[in-house]
């Protein structure tokens, strides 16, 4: 069996062109996804193996991407262990009982494989459907999950989160220790069922200073990544607005550091240091521009990515909901045409 392009690029092996996949490619912009989701709540769709399989496959069929990303949500493991939460349309995850004292920690029990049997079923089904196209599993990083739990929902300033971590570090580390174990268990379920790579999303880590990141976040992310190291699959670590944290995120242990659109990949490679591949990082908003503009920017991303030991082409964050799906397909074709220099 030929090693998939994604895994070869991550390993720093020669590839004819960068592999391509998109964060939030499963769903969001696809009309077939919206039709399938009619009348089905987000978390309900994440707990039905038949829907997970179909939604995960849709962008692979339509765009010809080089990897599938498992359709789920970062708060799904919390829902699976009984946390009272819901994803409110137009708002995001809303927590009924925010964690602001030691008492609320009791709702965070360990995640067992039996809690997410639908995930195992879906991954196994997907592996059979995808053939040689690798499936990427994912989980939310402890800090990002904690920010939802502490704030009670999405936040622009993360004020309660930052206040708690600094005012009660013992509670903070207890919270992130539990969340890290949940995220690690969720990743293990996916890999043991057949996922061939994983991504740890720390969506909100960019709100932190480097000092706070090192003290309050990095050790917990490192433990999640280390907890799946024995499974032998490459690990991707991604955050938004993390240009000043790239070296520290790399030191947490992943083979690949995802880079948002704010930092060119050659500069990101310099900051991260040797030995790690990069992923990214076209600005998702550029997909609303004319094709010539998109292709010019994509060519710049591919060229800058040559500075790294390996490059996985992606957007600098997720696909925006109103993106024209045909623009994504054209982008995949364009990146596939960018052959490596002889």
Characteristic key phrases:
two-stranded antiparallel ribbon; 45% helix; TIM Barrel; alpha/beta; 342 residues; 7-stranded parallel β-sheet
Question: How is this structure best described in words?
Answer:
The strands form 2 sheets. The protein has a 7-stranded parallel beta sheet. With 342 residues, the protein is α/β, with parallel strands linked by helices. The mean pLDDT is 97. The two termini are 25 Å apart. It has helices at residues 5-10, 31-37, 42-45, 49-63, 76-80, 117-130, 142-151, 159-167, 169-193, 210-227, 246-251, 265-272, 291-305, 325-336, and strands at residues 68-69, 85-88, 92-95, 135-140, 197-202, 235-239, 256-258, 277-282, 311-315. The longest helix has 25 residues, at 169-193. Helix 10 links the parallel strand 5 (197-202) and strand 6.
């Amino acid at each position: 069996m030929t090693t998939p392009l994604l895994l070869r690029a991550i390993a720093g092996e020669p590839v004819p062109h960068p592999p391509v996949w998109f964060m939030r490619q499963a769903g969001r912009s696809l009309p077939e996804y919206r039709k399938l989701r009619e009348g089905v709540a987000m978390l309900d769709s994440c707990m039905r193996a038949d829907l997970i399989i179909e939604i995960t496959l849709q962008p692979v069929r339509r765009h010809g991407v080089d990897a599938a990303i498992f359709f789920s949500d970062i708060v799904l493991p919390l829902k699976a262990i009984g946390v009272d939460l819901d994803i409110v349309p137009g708002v995001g995850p809303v927590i009924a009982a925010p964690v602001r004292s030691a008492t609320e920690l009791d709702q965070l029990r360990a995640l067992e494989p039996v809690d997410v049997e639908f995930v195992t079923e879906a991954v196994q089904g997907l592996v059979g459907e995808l053939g040689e196209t690798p499936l990427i599993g994912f989980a939310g990083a402890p800090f990002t999950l904690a920010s939802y739990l502490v704030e009670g929902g999405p936040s622009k300033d993360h004020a309660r989160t930052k206040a708690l971590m600094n005012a009660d570090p013992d509670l903070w580390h207890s919270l992130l220790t539990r969340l890290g174990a949940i995220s690690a268990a969720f990743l293990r379920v996916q890999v043991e069922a057949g996922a061939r790579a994983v991504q740890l999303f720390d969506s909100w880590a960019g709100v932190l200073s480097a000092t706070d990141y090192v003290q309050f976040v990095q050790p917990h992310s490192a433990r999640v990544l280390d907890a799946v190291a024995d499974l032998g699959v490459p690990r991707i670590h991604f955050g938004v607005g993390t240009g000043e944290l790239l070296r520290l995120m790399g030191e947490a242990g992943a083979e690949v550091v995802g880079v948002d659109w704010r930092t060119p990949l050659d500069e990101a490679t310099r900051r991260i240091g040797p030995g790690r591949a990069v992923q990214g990082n076209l600005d998702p908003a550029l997909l609303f521009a004319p094709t010539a503009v998109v292709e010019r920017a994509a060519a710049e991303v591919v060229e800058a990515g040559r500075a790294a030991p390996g490059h996985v082409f992606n957007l600098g964050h997720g696909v925006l909901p109103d993106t024209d799906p045909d623009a994504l397909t054209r982008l995949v074709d364009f990146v596939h045409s960018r052959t490596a220099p002889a």
